Amino acid sequence: MTAGHIQEFACYTDFDKELVCHWKVSAQTNCSKEFLLCYSKEISSVSNVCVPENGKDSLRCTCTICPDYFVSGLTYVLALQFNGTDIWNYNVTPALVVKPRAPKNLAIEKAENGNFNLSWEESYSPPSTLSGQPVIYELKYWRKQHPMEVSVKAINYQAKSFEITASSLRRGYDYVASLRCNYTDYPAYWSEWSEEVEFHYDYQVTAEDILQMAVPISCILIMAGSVICYFCFTKYVSYW
């Protein structure tokens, strides 16, 4: 095993509790037995170790570091060992690789105007560095029966709610919505998509629908009445 075999080494952080580093490995690799990740703060000579674990797909090793704190200017010096030998060195500044946690507690309810109000909460609270920082969101929603037909809306302001207009939906369908976020001062990565929330747009007849149906029906009735009157009139004239 040489340094050339280490592929796609990368790190990201929620900038609150953990710094996660991962790298690609060949199948059958036992990450915890073959690798060790040593790390230290750039301003300190104290070295710590992280024992990696195999990822869910078994083709990645993942190491989760839980520092005491995060600050913008801090850099970590990493050294990856394979069977006791240093094979990879890497410096990472957590503030430059922020992947925030997804928004939480999504909820949706139907408004009086027929639209749907989606609300959520930020995943950070004081004293977290990201709490209260400028954040933008991206919303996606789709018909549950047609998951490939996705509508995406950018919410380019700091908000905790968004109104999904009824005009963008089709009646009689179940819908699914999800949200992700990105902190504008730490824009390296978008968060993962949040947990999904479902809602149903029922087929309720509105005043607009009644009007749309009434106009053509009225026209048909008027035309039918005119035809009947015409035939009655011609028959009356011919009788006399």
Describe the overall structure:
This is Interleukin-4 receptor subunit alpha. Keywords: Disulfide bond, Glycoprotein, Membrane, Phosphoprotein, Receptor, Signal, Transmembrane, Transmembrane helix. This protein is of the alpha+beta class and 240 residues long. The protein has 3 domains: 7-96, Immunoglobulin-like, CATH 2.60.40; 104-201, Immunoglobulin-like; 207-239. The chain is 15% helix and 39% strand. It is elongated. The protein starts with 6 loop residues before the first strand and ends with a helix.
Question: What attributes does this structure have?
Answer:
about 240 residues, alpha+beta, Immunoglobulin-like, four-stranded antiparallel β-sheet, elongated, glycoprotein
What percentage of the residues does DSSP assign to strands (E)?
A: 35-45%
What's the CATH C level of the largest domain? Mainly Beta
Question: So what's the overall shape?
Answer: elongated
Q: Indicate the low-confidence ranges by residue numbers.
A: none
The count of helical stretches stands at 2
Note the run of SSEs as H and E.
Answer: EEHEEEEEEEEEEEEEH
What's this entry about, in short?
Helices cover about 15% and strands about 40% of the residues. It has 2 helices and 15 strands.
Please outline the helices and strands.
Elements: E1 7-13, E2 19-24, H1 31-34, E3 35-41, E4 48-50, E5 53-54, E6 60-65, E7 76-82, E8 85-92, E9 104-110, E10 116-121, E11 135-143, E12 150-155, E13 161-164, E14 173-183, E15 197-201, H2 207-239
Antiparallel strand pairs: 1-2, 2-6, 3-4, 3-7, 5-6, 7-8, 9-10, 10-13, 11-12, 11-14, 14-15
